[in-house]
Every structure is written in C-alpha cells, then in structure tokens.
Design a protein that fits this description.
Keywords: Endoplasmic reticulum, Heme, Iron, Membrane, Metal-binding, Microsome, Monooxygenase, Oxidoreductase, Transmembrane, Transmembrane helix. Its cofactor is heme. It is a peripheral membrane protein. With 519 residues, the chain is an alpha+beta fold. Helices cover 52% and strands 7% of the residues. It contains 20 helices and nine strands. It has a four-stranded mixed β-sheet. A three-stranded antiparallel β-sheet has the order 3-9-8. A two-stranded antiparallel ribbon has the order 5-6. β5 and β6 form a beta hairpin.
C-alpha cells in the first residue's frame, strides 16, 4: 500500500512539474511580444508579468499601471504584461487624445470581457460595439439639465438628512468615520433615484439595501481567482459563471427592479427619478423631452425597447458608478479640507455668500454658481480619481501614429489616470492640495488630456454631472453647518485598499466634527 501511494505521489509530482514547465515555455513565448514589436517594455517576472505587487496584495492592480507610467516617462508609450497578456500603457497626452477621441471608433470597447448571459453585465459601462452605441443613444437624454433638476429634490432631501444625522456627534465634537457616512448618503440617493425605493440607511446603517451594496465591493479569494483567469484568458468569464452560477447580489437587484417596475405599472405610479426614465425606455423606447409637451420625435433607434433585465442592469451600474464617485470624493474632499483650514474657511465663506443671495435656499442655480466649490471638487478628483486607469481595446489592427508599431486587434490599452494626475510635469508638487490649479488661467496652460477623472470622448462617464451634483450637495449641507478637523485617528497621507479596483482609503477617513461658530 505504501509503495502504491509513493508511486502515485511521484507520478503526481512529475505531472505537476511538466505542467509548470509547459506553462513557463508558453509564458516565455508570450513575453517576447513587445520585444518583437519594437516597443519599450518592463521586464516581466514569471508568472506574474508586471503585476506581482498587486497579486501579493501590496497595492491594487491599477497602481501597477501607475508604476509602469512613471518608468515610461519620456516615451510616448510602453508595454507591460498582466501575467502573460501584453498591454500597452499610453504616456503621451496627444496619443491619449487620439485614442479617446480622434480614432475613437478603433478603440470604442473597454476590453473588459463579460459573460453576456449574466443580465447585470448588460449595462453601458461594459457593453461594446453596436450594443454600446445603441444603448448610449437611449440613455443620453436621462442626464440632461432638465432631468438633473427633476431628481434634484431627492438629493436635497438626502443631504438634509445627512446634516441631521451628524448634528449630535457635531455637538459633542466627536470623531466620525466619513467614508461610511458618505457611503450611506450615496446609497440613500441612488436607492431612491435609480431603484425607486426609500431605505434611509443614514438612520438605519444595517438596512438590507446597504448590506447588499457592501457585498458588491467585497473582496474574496474567488474574486481574486476570477481576476487572474480573466487576465490570462478573457474567455474564461463564461467558465467562471458556469461554475459559480448566478450570484445572490444579481438575484437581489434583479428582483428589486422587477418588483418596483411591476408595482409602478400596475398602480400607475410616476416619480421624478431615473427608474421612471428607464420604464419609459422599456415601454416606449424613448424618453419624453424636457421641452413643453413632453414628447420627442422618434427615429429608427426608437424601435428598440429595453427589457426588464436591461432596466435592472442600468440601475445596477448607476449604483456602482454613482456610489463610488460621490461617497469617496466627498470623504476625500473633507479629509483635505480638515488638513487645510484656510481652504475650508474660504469655501465656507463662498457657500454662505451664495446661499444668502438665494434667500438661504440651496437651488440648482445656486450650486452651479459656486466657483470655488468647483475648484475644490476638481482638485479632489485630481488627487483622488475614483477610477485609476481607463481601459480600451482596439477592435481593428492599428498603426500608432508617427511610429512603426502596429497593434494586433484586441490589444489592451491602459491610460494611467492616476499617473497623469500625479505627474509633476503637469501638476507641480502633485501631493499638495491646491484648488487654484483649476483656475481658468492654470487650466489654459495645461494639456486637456492630463486630467481625466471621468474619461473623455464618446465614452466619457454619462453620469458625470449627476455624480458631481450629488457630491456638491453633500459638501454644501455639511460645510454650511459644521467644521472638520483632523483627529488623533486621522492619517495625513492616505493609503489605499490594495484589493480594490477603485481608489478606496484604507481604514476609512476619521475626522473630528464640530458645529460652526457663526456670527
């Protein structure tokens, strides 16, 4: 028996050794890709390529791209490897503009492979090609100024509740973890606007919707394996879904949307929210115009209507995008304002003055007239962009302008937003928080494609204005009532969660809150 077991173990070790050798040979051939193309590249390390730090949890994978950007400075582009898969890192702002705008139709897809049989992946962020274009046309009218004003009251209600929740800790001068506070505020807005439900998780942090929202951003060993397989072979997404089945998160959000739509249609309920606009796209194929009469002319695209799963997918991505943009930007801004009391005081002066001009009312026009608030939010997004890199993939063979390099179809393209926005050549002393970087004079002196917190070109974030408005409403409500200071738990220079694909502060943001001493 012992001899048999020893023999089996030997055979297993031989088989594993052969598999490792075969894998090494395969990866070694893959690692010749950029050398053969004549592209400068980072020397890969088997089997990680150039993402060892993120694989072992030292930093997030997008930060590996930031490191590559810094090593390629002085060049227009360079190559790196995600395990065995080659990717191009774009350094030159003019080439970035070419990819995002001028030659957009060669790079219209993000290159993030998804299993389209999963209903919640059929949303605007992930779709490519004609499916993306058709859906973009449908959804663009949902984010006009008129539609923003329609949803504005919901933001005000949630902002008022945000301030009310913080009144007690402010009166006691307590330390508050603002990342979680911002997350609950954003969740309340999106639950109401995108899903048509009132959850008030600002008062009830353990509300079911908030708990399910947390699950979306949770990391796990399975998700790590999924990321590895997707990096090595994007086609593996179908295998992954086959093995794990539909997730509980997917089931929850699909059922919520289905129940909400059914209730509204059966009871003829109409609300001024994003869900109402999605229901219009489901039933009519178009959205009523902001113009008097509320109708718009139809075109050939209007023949296509959203399915109930399409509606669920758009509501879901609304949550993903709006949640991170507003909650993290709000908390990052408060972190910087707490450490720069002069900037905080100047912003509070502007808020007080503008609100006084509008009889103390926070109107849509009042917010849009706060120029210093614009600068503070813009500088926050520069220093802490929610999305650290932009992904693209060429859908045709492409010759890089002014070079002899021809990219094979399907090459991943990485645009390092964080690297660009922390480059001292474009933003001197990049770790210094300075809203005046976004004065008209300084913006005019800077290349427009080195500041890309929402992307650029036809695939620029469609909900950008909504996310900015959501953030500004929160900051106005808070800064008109409270002051924020560093606490003994505060960290001056933040570090970020290594397993997160978005910029998330490690350990949260702990600030001391107090009532303003207004004259």
């Amino acid at each position: 028996m012992g001899v048999y077991a020893e023999s089996c173990l030997t055979e297993l070790l031989v088989a594993l050794s052969l598999a490792v050798v075969a894998l090494y040979v395969w990866f070694s051939r893959c690692y010749q890709y950029w050398h053969q193309k004549g592209v400068p590249y980072l020397e890969p390390q088997f089997p990680f390529g150039n993402i060892y730090k993120s694989f072992v949890g030292q930093q997030s994978m997008p930060m590996d791209v930031t490191d590559a950007y810094r090593q390629f400075k002085g060049k227009r582009f360079g190559g790196m490897y995600f395990f065995n898969r080659p990717a191009l890192v774009v350094v030159d702002p003019d080439l970035i503009r070419t990819i995002l705008v001028k030659d957009f139709w060669s790079f219209q897809d993000r290159g993030i492979k998804v299993d389209e049989s999963d209903p919640l992946t059929r949303h605007l962020f992930l779709l490519g090609g004609n499916k993306w274009r058709r859906l973009r046309v449908k959804l663009t009218p949902t984010f006009t100024s008129g539609k923003m004003k329609m949803m504005f009251q919901t933001m005000l209600d949630c902002g008022r509740e945000l301030a009310a929740v913080l009144e007690e800790p402010a009166s006691r001068g307590q330390v508050v973890e603002m990342r979680e506070v911002g997350a609950r505020y954003a969740t309340d807005i999106i639950a109401s606007v995108a899903f048509g439900i009132d959850v008030n998780c600002q008062r009830n942090p353990e509300a079911a919707f908030r708990q399910w929202g947390r699950k979306i951003f949770e990391t796990s060993p399975l998700r790590t394996v999924q990321s590895v397989l997707n990096a090595i072979n994007p086609s593996s997404v179908k295998l992954i879904r086959l093995l794990r089945g539909e997730s509980d998160v997917s089931k929850y959000f699909r059922k919520m949307v289905s129940d909400t739509v059914a209730y509204r249609e059966e009871n003829n309920v109409s609300r001024n929210d994003f869900m109402h606009l999605l229901i219009q796209l489901k039933n009519k194929g178009c959205i009523d115009s902001d113009k008097p009469g509320g109708q718009r002319e139809k075109d050939e695209e209007d023949a296509w209507k959203l399915s109930i799963d399409d509606v669920a997918a758009q509501a879901f991505v609304f949550f993903l995008a709006g949640f991170e943009t507003s909650s993290t930007t709000m908390s990052f801004a408060l972190h910087e304002l707490a450490h720069h009391p002069d900037i905080q005081a100047r912003l509070q002066e502007e808020i007080d003055a503008v609100l006084k001009q509008h009889d103390g009312q926070m109107t849509y026009d009042a917010i849009n007239s706060m120029q210093y608030l614009d600068k503070v939010v813009a500088e926050t997004l520069r220093k802490y962009p929610p999305v650290v890199i932009l992904n693209r993939e060429n859908n045709v063979e492409y010759k890089i302008p002014d070079s002899d390099v021809v990219l094979d179809k399907g090459t991943p393209i990485m645009i390092p937003v964080y690297g660009l926005q922390h480059d001292p050549d474009y933003f001197p002393e990049p770790e210094r928080f300075d809203p005046e970087r976004f004065s008209e004079e300084q913006k005019a002196q800077r290349h427009p494609y080195v500041y890309l917190p929402f992307g650029e070109g036809p695939r620029i974030c469609i909900g950008m204005r909504f996310g900015l408005l959501q953030t500004k409403v929160a900051l106005i409500y808070l800064l008109s009532r409270f002051t924020f200071e560093p606490s003994e738990k505060s960290v001056r220079h933040l570090t970020f969660e290594p397993r997160s694909f978005v910029l998330m502060p490690k350990g949260g943001i702990q600030l001391r809150i107090g009532n303003r001493k207004q004259l």
